[in-house]
Amino acid sequence: MFGMPIYQYGDSSVFEFSNELTEPSVNANEVLIEIRATSVNPIDLMKREGYGRSIFEKQRNHLFPWILGCDVSGIVKKVGSKVIKFKEGDQVWGSTSSPKKGTYAEYTLFNQNEIDLKPENLSFIEAASLPYVALTTWAALIRWAALRPQDLEDKKVFVQAGSGGVGTFAIQLLRHWGAKVATTCSKENHNLVQELGAEITIDYRKEEFSDLLEGYDLVFDCLGDFGGVDSVTKCLNILKANATSHYISLNHAFIRTIDEKGLLLGLPAALKLRYQVKKSAKPINFHWSLYRPSSSGLSELGRMVRAEIIKPVIDSIYPLENIKEAHEKIATSHARGKVVIEVKKE
Ligand SMILES: NC(=O)c1ccc[n+]([C@@H]2O[C@H](COP(=O)([O-])OP(=O)(O)OC[C@H]3O[C@@H](n4cnc5c(N)ncnc54)[C@H](OP(=O)(O)O)[C@@H]3O)[C@@H](O)[C@H]2O)c1
C-alpha cells in the first residue's frame, strides 16, 4: 500500500513517500479502512519530533517506518470475525491515539469501537476534520472534568484559543449545551468564532483576557503550558474561587515528564506533579486532559452533525503527497479550523 511514513524523528522533511508499505491484516475486533481523508493535529507534529517516545515506542510493533495521523474517513474493505456493526463498503469515520494505527496512508486498521458510520451530510474531507478534536473536547469535559451537558447551562466558559481545530469545535458544543462562551483569537477570526457561538471575543494580541473576564465557571485552555505559567495563573484567576469551578488544560507536563525521566521514574513523577498542581489550585478543580476514544462520544457527534448543530471548519486541504506543507501550516499555530489531507479523491 502507499503512504507517507517517517523513517526517523525530525522536522517536516522526514516524511517519505512509499508504495511498498505492508497492508495490515485484520484481527477479530478490527476493521480495515480504505482511507479517503485524514487531518493534521498538533500531536502528529509532536510525535514526529519524538514526543511521547518513552511510551509510544513500546507500543509499536517496529520503530520505523512509522505512519502518523489520528483522524480517518473512508470505506470499509474488510472486517474481523467479531465485527457485527460494519460491513464491506460502509462509509465510516473515527479517530485513534494508538501509535500502531496511522492514517497518512492508503489503508488503516481501526478497532470497531473507534469508528462509526459517517454522517451522510458530510463529505469524506469534512468528516476527517472532526473526530479527534471532538473526542478531545468530549474527553476533557466529560471524562476528566466529569461534567454533564446540563452542568454547562447558562455557565460562563472561557475557551482559550478558539479559532483552531479544537476551539472551533468546543465553542459549538459548549454553545449547544447552553454555556455563555468567551474566547481568545486574532482579530481576523472574531467573525468566525462569533458565528460558531462565542459571545465575547478577545484579540489576545491587543487585550489581556484576565483584565476583561471574571466570575467564570470553566476554562477550557487549548494553550495550557504553551501559553506560559502566567497564562495558566491568569486562567485560574478569572474563575470563581469555589469547588464547582473547573480549569482544563490540553497542554501540560504529563507525557513530557515521562519522556524526561523514562517510564519507570517518569510515571510516578508525573502523577505526583499532577497531584501537586491539583492541590495548589483548590478549591478550583484542575485537570490535565488527554484524548481518549469514546464510541458514545462519536455516536453523539454523528447525531449533532446530522442535525447540523455542529459544522466542520476547514482551513485548507492538502493532498497526501504534500503532508510536509500541511505540517508546516499547523506549525504556524494559526490554522483557522482544521487542516485536512485528501488521501484518495472521492
Ligand atoms: N491533551 C490532548 O489530548 C490534546 C488533544 C488535542 C489537542 N491538544 C492540544 O491543544 C492545542 C490546540 O489544538 P488545535 O488542534 O486546536 O491546534 P491548532 O488548530 O493548531 O490551533 C491553532 C489556533 O491557535 C490559536 N492561537 C495561537 N496562539 C494563540 C494565543 N496566544 N492565544 C489565543 N489563541 C492562539 C490561533 O489563533 P489565531 O490564528 O486566531 O491567532 C489558531 O487559530 C494544541 O496545542 C494541541 O497540542 C491536546
Explained architecture:
The chain is of the alpha/beta class and 346 residues long. It folds into 2 domains: 12-130 and 313-342, Quinone Oxidoreductase, Chain A, domain 1 (Alpha-Beta Complex), CATH 3.90.180; 146-288, 3-Layer(aba) Sandwich (Rossmann fold), CATH 3.40.50.720. It has 11 helices and 13 strands. The protein has helices spanning 42-48, 53-59, 124-127, 131-144, 165-176, 190-196, 209-212, 229-238, 254-281, 295-306, 323-331; strands spanning 30-40, 71-79, 91-95, 107-111, 115-117, 156-160, 180-185, 198-203, 218-221, 246-249, 285-288, 314-319, 338-342. The strands form 2 sheets. Strands 1, 2, 3, 4, 5, 12 and 13 form a 7-stranded mixed beta sheet that branches. Strands 8-7-6-9-10-11 form a 6-stranded parallel beta sheet, sandwiched between helices. Strand 9 (218-221), helix 8 (229-238) and strand 10 form a beta-alpha-beta unit. Helix 4 packs across helix 5. It is globular, with a radius of gyration of 20 Å. It starts with 29 loop residues before the first strand and ends with a strand. NADP nicotinamide-adenine-dinucleotide phosphate is lined by residues 41-43, 133, 136, 160-161, 163-167, 184-186, 189, 204, 222-223, 226-227, 250-251, 289-291, 330, 333-336. Residues 41-43, 133, 136, 160-161, 163-167, 184-186, 189, 204, 222-223, 226-227, 250-251, 289-291, 330, 333-336 line the site of NADP nicotinamide-adenine-dinucleotide phosphate.
